[in-house]
Amino acid sequence: MSSRLLRSSLAASLMALLAAVSIPAEAAQVRCRIPFSFTVHGATLPPGNYHASTDVGPGMLAIHGDRSFAFAIANDLLTRDESEARLVFYKYGDSYYLREVWLGGRSGRELPQNHPKGDVKTAKDGTAPEAFERVVIAAR
């Protein structure tokens, strides 16, 4: 009898552990409809439905669309404020660059600066940085 009880307890514990491990994977995806072409790590993706996922590995971010995808290295972001799931783009002129992916709750990922003219915070020629517009697309 105790052997049967031990096996049942072990099975229940294993199922609880697997359920707990699967929760972050679900929370690590954001789905959005992007109405413009945008750049991720040098790859330009067309407008469409996308989902961003951190399931690909530590420090990595995958962006999957209906017909296209891209991978990028991303740093962890944390905020004290409650945060809705969303994608944040920086728009320079007519070009959009994915900059942040917020997964909901208080966590997100930041992509390295991928502006074609380099780091706009400190312009290479010492002039003022090029202005950009921050564009936010809410998850659906």
Structure overview:
By secondary structure, this protein is α+β, with helices and mostly antiparallel strands. It has one domain. 19% of the residues lie in helices and 48% in strands. It is built from one helix and ten strands. The strands form three sheets. Strands 1-4-5-6 form a four-stranded antiparallel beta sheet. The longest helix has 26 residues.
Keywords:
140 residues; alpha+beta; four-stranded antiparallel sheet; 1 helix; 10 strands
Strand order of the largest sheet: 1-4-5-6
> How many strands appear in the DSSP assignment?
10
Residue-averaged pLDDT, rounded? 78
Structural class: alpha+beta
Helix content: 10-25%
Number of domains: 1
- Rg calc: 20 Å
Please tally the helical runs, counting DSSP H or I stretches of 4 or more residues. 1
CA distance, first residue to last residue: 51 Å
Strand content: over 45%
Shape: globular
Give a nutshell description of this structure.
With 140 residues, the chain is α+β, with helices and mostly antiparallel strands. The chain has one domain (28-138).
